[in-house]
Here is the input.
Amino acid sequence: LLPDSLKLLPLYTLALIKNTALKSGPDVGPDERSYAQHLLRTMPLNMLIAYIYPRLYALKILAPEYGTMVNGQLILPPVNNLLSQKLDRSGIYLLDNGQYLFLWVGKAAP
Here is the structure.
């Protein structure tokens, strides 16, 4: 059994291997790789975790308290796992990697 602090290490390791900073091959240019390596070295930890393993939010059904501030903290919807099986054709999802926000709208979304 792993301690709680190490339980996500395999997940983050696999995600980091797929990151642009460590990819090799013709699909990643040297400038892009260099920039990604610079980000890995200089980002604050909370942004770095999101950059390595982005957060996926389902936006189809939102509770009224999402997006409000409580005690100085922003209330956000729960984070979904990054699995293609979790994506519903009628859903709307927001992917946050700490640098960019991507909005995915399913073909059957209302």
Notes: The helical segments are 9-17, 30-42, 45-52. The radius of gyration is 16 Å. The longest strand covers residues 92-96. The chain has a mean pLDDT of 91.
